[in-house]
Each structure stands twice: as C-alpha cells, then as structure tokens.
Amino acid sequence: MPLIDNKHSRCIAAIDLGSNSFHMVVARVFDQHLQLVSRHKQKVRLGDGLDEHNFLSESAIERGLECLKVFAERLADFELDDVRVVATHTLRKAKNTKDFLEQAKPLFPFPIEIISGQEEARIIYNGVEHTQAASESKLVIDIGGGSTEIVAGQGFTPQIMRSLPMGCVSFTQRFFADGGLTSQHFSDAYVSATRLLMPLIEEYKQISWEVAFGSSGTAKSIKEVLIGLGFTDGLITPQRLSYLKNHLCEFPSSKGLDLSGLSDERKPVFAAGVTILSAVMDMLNINELHFSDSALREGVLYDMEDRFKDIDVRTRTAETLVSRYHVDVVHGQKVKALALSLLKQAQPQVSTAVNNELYDLIGWAALLHEVGQSIAFQGYHRHSAYLLKHTTMPGFNTEQQRLISTLVRYQRKAIKLSYLPDLTLFNTGQVALLIRILRIAILLNRQRNQSPIPNVKLTIEQDENWCLEGDTIDWLAENQLLDYELKEEQRRWQDAGWSLKLE
Fold first, then answer.
1. For the stretch 88-103, what's the b/e string if a residue is b when 16 or more beta carbons lie within 10 angstroms of its beta carbon?
2. CB of 424 within 8 A of CB of 87?
3. What pLDDT does 454 receive?
4. Are 228 and 257 in contact (CB under 8 A)?
5. What angle do CA 71, 173, 176 make, to 5 degrees?
6. CA–CA separation, 387 vs 367, rounded Å?
7. Cα dihedral 253→259→261→266 (10° resolution)
8. Is 366 in contact with 335 (CB distance < 8 Å)?
9. Domain spans of the chain, in order of start
10. What is the structure's pLDDT at 451?
11. What is the pLDDT of residue 473?
C-alpha cells in the first residue's frame, strides 16, 4: 500500500499578499494529514508603492498583478474552494485597493480576502501552533512588511492578539530611506517602535508564556545572519540583536551589507526588521526567541481544512458574542434553520450564484441578528449592525463581517438598496437574495411561541418576483398578526422594487 493514497487526497493552496512579498504554499491533504508540496515566493514590494495619501502607485499595482498571473498558472487545475487568498497591511490601508482587486479579477480567478490585523494575528498563531508542541503557552511575533503581529496564547487558543502599524518596509521608508545605517537611524526607529508598543505592555504582563517564537521572513533572516556571525544555536536574544545593530553601523549603507545568510532582496529592509524586533523583545522582556518556519500561510491552510482545527473558530466567535450580548440562542437557531431551508429552496430558482459560503454567512447572521437588543430594543437592527461591523470577529475576513452586518442591518424596517456596501467578494444580487431570505425567516419566527412555524413553499420568478405559499389555504387567516406583518413587508418590498405575493 502506498504511503499516500492519491485517490483519497486533494491539494489545497494558501496565498498571502503581503507588503513585501507575495507567497503561495501548496499542500496535499490526506488521511487527516497535511503535507506541504511546494512554496512559491515573489518579491513585490507592494508597500513601497503606497504614497503619503495611502494610494497605491500604478507600478506597484502592476507588480502585484504580474505576480498573481504567475500564481494563477500554477493553480490552473485547482477548484475555487481549494484556494484561499488573504491580503494584509498594505491592501488593508490602500484607498484604491478596489482598483487593484478589479484589475486582478480577469487575471486571477480566486477571490482575494482583505483580513483585519487581528485576524491576521490569529491565523499566524494558528500556523505556529500546528507545528509546535500544543501543550505549551506561547508568544508569537511576526514582523511583516507593513505591520507586526504579537499574539500570546495557550494551546490552540490565542488570548491576546494585537497588530501594530510597523513593518520592515514601512519603517525602512520612514527611518532608513537613504540607505544609511547610522546609530541615529537605529535610535529613531527604536524609539518609534517602543512608543507603539507602550500601550500594550500592561496587557501582556497579565499573561505568561513558556516559549517565544519569531515567524516569517524578518525573523528568519535575522536567525540566519546570527548563525553566520557564529551564534550557531539559531536563538535570537536582545544581546545578539544589540551586537547586530552595532555591526550593521559598520557598513556605509544597506546596499553594501555583506553578511552571511542575508539575501540581496532582504538587504534594503533588514535594518528596520532588526530594530523592530529589538524593541519588541526589550519591551516584553523576552530573553530568547526561537524561529518558527510556519506562520500566516500555514495558518490559512489549517483553517481551510476542518480536520486540523482544535475548535471551529467561527463557532467560538459566535458563542462569545451570544454570551456577551445575552442573545436568545433558541430563537436564533430557529431563524437560522428556516433561513437555510428557504435559501435551499431559492437556489435553483435564481440566477445568482449560491455557494456554501452564502449558507454559512446567512446562518451566522441569523444566530446573531439580535445582538443589538442589549443596547436598546428601539432600532436594535441598527445597533446589531454596528456591533457586528466594529467588533473583533476571529474567523471572518473584512468583507464577510461587512456582509453579516449588512444582512442584520436590513433584517426589518425600510430597505434602502442605495446604501448597500460595495463589496468585492459578493455581488449585489447575492446580498439582496440573503437580505430577503433573512427578513422572511425572522418574520415567520416573530411570535416566539411554541406554535409550529408555518410550512411555506417559496417560488421565485425572474429573481425579483417572490411568492410564499402556505401548506393550508387559510394559513394566514389562522394567524392574523403574521398576516398583518407580511402585508407590511409586501409594501416595503414594493418600495425597494421587489415583489412578494402571499398565497
């Protein structure tokens, strides 16, 4: 019997669109194992193209698109569900990110998710944890091109997740732009990093960890340079970083760096990375830092494959919100069940593409649609939308969170289609479909009593003309309040340009 049964395996890919480089990892999933097959990296320096007004330059966009075209060729045989693409600091920050995403669509068929700094931190921790001893408490430091993520956790559970706007590319632009490596350059960068770290110190003092890891390119290059300087155990310490900074000052510029283990592409941003890491280790009193070869991309892979999750992250997020805002779980589950049933009925009748993700997201929206009642019943749909838009929701990317917030916002009252957000991962037809489904599911469950929910059949013509038919002729006559509310709903649909018949 072969070691790997290819008949029962599949390949998945994770792509990280970072500020410095674009990375892709491909892995084979088989028999509850995940085996890396290949890694691909291309220096894009997207962060270099961000101007003082946070607009990406055309040249930076072009570099990013060229890389995506190369990645698309490698992924030509992959299904959409087997590829996940996440974008981090630069595309979070850029005001013209949509231009980049729109230009990418004809070249690169896979959806690109913009993830929050907190979500990036969670995924990085996930990647490290899956490749280290699960019993240990950990601190993970990941210095990227535009941001630094610092995560402390126990086992598979991150306890503190923070993302700071300092990275090796952004700090190079601010403090080492001329390529000079003077003690003043290092001092200015160090002070700036400590100022960003200062508000976090007390929070991290409340938690202890047994081992600290550095992940991704910055930590890797520092480790390899230190090995080249004779520190063969590969550990990073504050003393060694101090020695390294002094050594770097002996070179006239970053271009002239001649250090064993340091690649040419890493030279321009190396000094900034060393300074940031030095500040983090000093401020958090870290005596030694180990290197982890796994980080964001590996975390994405493990997120993609349920068998490798200790606990479903989204479930944990929902449970936290339900507890915090005292949500009626039983009612939420009823609304969810009906919403999923209606969506299943609608799917073959609409031209809009309905995938598994839409089922997932309307389910989460149904469970959480009343979180705003903890603020006030009056206008609770708006309160719910605000909370779900602005709270930290591990497991959801930025657009998924915005979609859930939008669905919840339009669960009742007037439907203002002109106010719908402009999303990249979801089109207007999908958003409108889910809004209608959720509104009906909530209406039919409005009474919160033990009476069975009316068994309705949903018929749709030309996407806009909907009809609800009960299983008895007098299904509405038996429930006059529901009859009244559904007729009110008819008027609201009409105002939105939709049609809802009741039979």
1. bbbbbbbebbeebbee
2. no
3. 73
4. no
5. 120
6. 14
7. 0
8. yes
9. 6-115, 118-296, 313-454
10. 65
11. 79
Indicate if 118-296 has the same CATH topology as 6-115.
yes
Reported as a single tens digit per residue, the pLDDT across 15-26 is 999 988 899 999
State percent of the chain over pLDDT 70: 95
Using CA atoms, how far apart are residues 488 and 494, in angstroms rounded to an integer?
Answer: 10
Sequence-distant (≥ 6) Cβ neighbours of residue 468 within 8 angstroms: 440, 456, 457, 458, 486, 500, 501, 502, 503
Domain 6-115 classification at class level:
alpha beta
What does the angle CA 321 – CA 326 – CA 332 come to, to the nearest 5 degrees? 75
| Average pLDDT of span 238-267 | 92
Query: If we measure between CA atoms, which residue out of 6, 89, 107 comes closest to residue 50?
Result: 89
CB 403 within 8 A of CB 423: yes
Q: What is the predicted pLDDT for the residue at 358?
A: 93
**Has residue 6 got a pLDDT over 70?**
no
pLDDT of res. 439:
95
Asked if residues 271 and 249 have their Cβ atoms less than 8 Å apart, the reply is: no
Q: What's the confidence (pLDDT) of residue 449?
A: 65
Helices (H) and strands (E) in the chain, counts: 18, 13
Task: Count CB-CB contacts under 10 A for residue 453.
Answer: 15
Backbone φ and ψ of 45, nearest 5°: 50, 50
**3-state SS assignment for residue 312:** coil
Residue 126 has pLDDT above 90, yes or no: no
Mean pLDDT of the residues in the chain: 89
User: String of b and e for 15-32 (b: at least 16 CB within 10 Å)?
Assistant: bbbbbbbbbbbbbebbee
Q: Does domain 313-454 have CATH number 3.30.1360.120?
A: no
- Are 434 and 407 in contact by the 8 Å Cβ rule? The answer is yes
Alpha helices in 44-116 (DSSP H): 58-74, 89-93, 97-104
CATH 3.30.420.150 corresponds to the domain 118-296: yes
Q: What is the mean pLDDT of residues 468-483?
A: 83
For residue 63 the two structure tokens come to 């570099």
Are 467 and 503 within 8 A, CB to CB? yes
CA 276, CA 271: separation in Å to the nearest integer? Answer: 9
Measure the CA dihedral 297/303/304/310, to 10°.
140
Torsion of the alpha carbons at 494, 496, 499 and 503, rounded to the nearest 10: -70
The whole-angstrom separation of Cα 168 and Cα 254 is: 13
